DNA sequence: GCCAACGTTGGC
DNA sequence: GCCAACGTTGGC
């Protein structure tokens, strides 16, 4: 399948994923149930991911990654001084999962949302929908291809 | 910093 | 289990 993952580049940017090399990075800290369900149930090894930089100066799609390890228990939910600590989580009941993400490609420039909105085939893309707040969301193969095409322009 | 949209919480 | 109040997200 094809996905869009949102990330604040100050936390984990496409460059950070690239720097992690073949080990990839642990995609942790997802604390929304709908996003968690995608991560736990549908994100599979080999799936392709558009990496979207949010809450920063240059908002937009920054590159491509791939899933190198499927859902496992998110370790950060147990770390008391972590931003992602969940006091309700314990060994018996650990609601949050993480995946491991590996670098594929960094776009020559960030693709801003305004550019994406101008592409007819992306009218239904979930990332572009008003009020969208999901940090893990599916996208279609066709949308994925259109974004790659736009990245070359 | 504004504000729309959505999620979460908690009283009843 | 309803729903108002509150918190958070995130583009602009």
Describe the protein's topology.
Elements: E1 2-7, H1 14-19, E2 25-27, H2 33-41, E3 48-53, E4 60-73, E5 97-111, H3 113-117, E6 136-139, H4 141-152
Parallel strand pairs: 1-3
Antiparallel strand pairs: 1-6, 2-5, 3-4, 4-5
The structure holds a DNA duplex (12 and 12 nucleotides).
User: At CATH's second level, what is the architecture?
Assistant: Roll
Total E-strand runs: 6
Number of helices: 4
The helix/strand order is EHEHEEEHEH
Distance between the termini: 25 Å
- The amount of helix comes to 10-25%
| CATH fold-level topology | ph1033 like fold
The main sheet orders its strands as: 2-5-4-3-1-6
Q: How many domain units?
A: 1
What does the radius of gyration come to? 15 Å
Low-confidence stretches: none
CATH class: Alpha Beta
Pfam families: EVE (PF01878)
Protein name: EVE domain-containing protein
Domain EVE: 2-148
InterPro entries: 5hmC_binding (IPR052181), EVE_domain (IPR002740), PUA-like_sf (IPR015947), THYN1-like_EVE (IPR047197)
């Amino acid at each position: 399948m094809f996905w869009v993952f949102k990330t604040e580049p100050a936390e984990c940017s496409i460059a950070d994923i690239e720097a992690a090399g073949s080990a990839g990075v642990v995609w942790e800290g997802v604390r929304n149930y709908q996003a968690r369900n995608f991560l736990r149930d549908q994100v599979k090894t080999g799936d392709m991911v558009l990496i979207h930089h949010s809450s920063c100066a240059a908002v937009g799609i920054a590159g491509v990654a791939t899933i190198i390890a499927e859902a496992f228990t998110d370790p950060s939910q147990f770390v008391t001084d972590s931003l992602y600590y969940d006091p309700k989580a314990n060994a018996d009941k650990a609601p949050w999962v993480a995946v491991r993400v590996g670098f594929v490609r960094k776009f020559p420039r960030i693709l801003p949302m305004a550019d994406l909105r101008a592409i007819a085939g992306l009218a239904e893309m979930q990332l572009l929908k008003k009020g969208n707040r999901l940090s893990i969301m599916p996208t279609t193969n066709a949308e994925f291809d259109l974004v790659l095409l736009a990245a070359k322009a």
